[in-house]
Amino acid sequence: MNKKTEQPGMTLIVKTITRLTVGLILLYGIYIVTHGHLSPGGGFPGGVIIALSFIHLMLAFGKDLALRKLSRGAAAFFESFGAIMFLTIGLLGVVGGYFFLNFVLKGRPFNLFSAGIIPLCNIAICLKVGAGLFAVFVALIFLKITVKRE
């Protein structure tokens, strides 16, 4: 096959499996974030799983497709927004008396909306971690830093 007609990415089998699984991986990451106050999980592991769904796209189809789905500018925006959101949640508690005071009604135990500000903090951490991990991976791709096998 000629270099000019060769498509970026991996083989047809890897691309097909990626098409089938990347949505499920993204959905599982969202589930981990939204249910992190009820079960093991939360913002950090959910953010890592969401970032890995975009990294999976990048590995299978090449960097151009992944950057069309989530550009470097969008990743920088989401990372900054996550940090600002987390800081805002913390500072809104100061109005009530101390840092990270729960200002949201708690609801009933074991319901999805039962943990006050914890789900909001999980979402903020997810944005920060997910976008940051994706940005680090993109930076490594653009800098062409590779690990030599010995």
Describe this structure in words.
With 150 residues, the protein is mostly helical. The chain has one domain. 67% of the residues lie in helices and 0% in strands. The protein has helices at 12-34, 43-61, 63-69, 72-96, 118-143. α2 crosses α3 (63-69). The longest helix has 26 residues, at 118-143. It is elongated and about 60 Å long. 27% of the residues are buried. The model has no long low-confidence stretch (mean pLDDT 85).
Short description:
This protein is mostly helical.
Tags for this model:
150 residues, 0% strand
Layout of secondary structure:
Layout: H1 12-34, H2 43-61, H3 63-69, H4 72-96, H5 118-143
Helix pairs in contact: 1-2, 2-3, 2-5, 4-5
Give a quick account of the main beta sheet: strands, pairing sense, barrel closure: none
Shape estimate: elongated
Which stretches of 5+ consecutive residues score pLDDT under 50? none
What is the count of β-strands? Answer: 0
